[in-house]
Design brief:
The complex is a heterodimer of chains A (181) and B (161).
Chain A lengths: L11 H14 L4 H13 L5 H13 L4 H39 L7 H28 L4 H15 L5 H15 L4
Chain B lengths: L12 H12 L5 H13 L7 H39 L4 H29 L3 H16 L4 H15 L2
The chains are: A mainly alpha (181), B mainly alpha (161).
């Protein structure tokens, strides 16, 4: 894992700002995708390799993936204060907005709301897709890796492997395959 | 309300939560639960936030705070420890190997995520168009993602009127 030059220049305020925006505007699984785009592409705090590993760790650990990911990034960039700041800014805004909507007892079946939501959901697919393309690009010169990725994809989509089954089968295989990079 | 702690984590949490809160504890009924799931999907942040809504219904604002803390805190602590361990072992050969091995598997899971979310969200040429446009904008520009999502919502409002 290569160290990025910006490691020591990221302040807590910058971390909070980056994650607050993402937390207020992303839905479900696209939140991790949005975080990756922000810290890798836009702010260039981390490399694609680093974020891939972190997303793997966040996926394996219990709890919601995106605050987990935010914590790992905060920890890596600014130690324990960074971890706490990142975790809170990635989780609190969504909670507050959810509660406000709940208190207003807004009807999610309203036509305008559901139309806007369909657009936002399509945008999530776009964000996820751009992420996956970016990560695939990092492996474009490694056919073996790409084969393993396709095998994992097929196992999940066609054979409906659970997360744990996927990890049990493919992670050891992948570690063996990549022992001599 | 402390039994919320027993929920644990993970993505398959919703059916478990339904069983506990609706069938076992009778805190809310099934219709309310579906309403909360829809709301939590609509609001930003993870689906996990339905716990806050349930806590709010059962015991007001303190209930919401307790439910969210109970659901977020254990996972946060575990993640923190994993993160610390991960940094402590920086440079160790097994860490590098695990990191290398994790890459292709995680990437396969991401593509599976694209397929899974795409199946639900893309139901015609309009939503497909939005998804393709957002993919391109996200890859080739540095437009703020909040603007991308809001823009997509606005386009959908016009198209699906």
């Amino acid at each position: 894992v290569t160290e990025t030059p910006s490691t020591r220049t990221v302040s807590i305020a910058q971390i909070v700002r980056a994650f607050l925006w993402i937390a207020m505007s992303s839905f479900g699984s696209s939140q991790s995708a949005a975080i990756q785009r922000e810290v890798v592409r836009i702010r260039q705090w981390l490399t694609v390799e680093e974020i891939t590993t972190m997303r793997g760790l966040a996926l394996i650990a219990p709890g919601a993936n995106s605050p987990n990911l935010a914590m790992l990034i905060g920890q890596r960039l600014a130690g324990t204060p960074g971890a706490i700041a990142a975790y809170l800014s990635a989780s609190v805004p969504g909670l507050v907005i959810t509660l406000i909507l709940g208190a207003l007892s807004l009807d999610p079946h309203l036509h305008g709301v559901s139309a806007g939501l369909r657009g936002a959901a399509a945008a999530s697919v776009g964000l996820l897709c751009s992420n996956a393309i970016e990560l695939t690009g990092a492996y474009r010169t490694k056919p073996l890796v790409l084969c393993l990725t396709v095998a994992t994809l097929l196992a999940v989509v066609v054979l409906h492997f659970s997360l744990w089954l996927t990890l049990t089968v493919f992670l050891p295989l992948s570690i063996l395959l990549r022992r001599h990079p | 309300l402390l039994s919320v702690v027993s929920f644990g984590g993970g993505a398959a949490i919703v059916p478990q939560m339904h069983a506990d809160v609706v069938e076992r504890m009778h805190w809310i009924d099934s219709a309310q639960f579906s309403h909360f799931v829809a709301l939590a999907t609509l609001a930003p942040g993870p689906l996990l936030n339905i716990a806050a809504l349930i806590g709010y219904t059962v015991a007001g604002i303190p209930g919401a705070i307790v439910a969210s803390a109970a659901l977020y805190a254990p996972a946060a602590c575990i993640m923190y420890v994993i993160g610390r361990l991960w940094q402590r072992f920086a440079g160790h050969p097994w860490r590098e190997r695990l990191a290398l091995g994790l890459g292709p598997v995680v990437l396969g899971l991401f593509w599976a995520g694209v397929v899974a979310v795409g199946k639900g969200a893309i139901d015609g040429s309009a939503t497909l168009g939005i998804a393709v446009a957002v993919t391109a904008l996200a890859l080739f520009t540095k437009v703020n993602q909040a603007l991308l999502v809001a823009g997509a919502g606005a386009v959908a409002l016009v198209v699906f009127r």
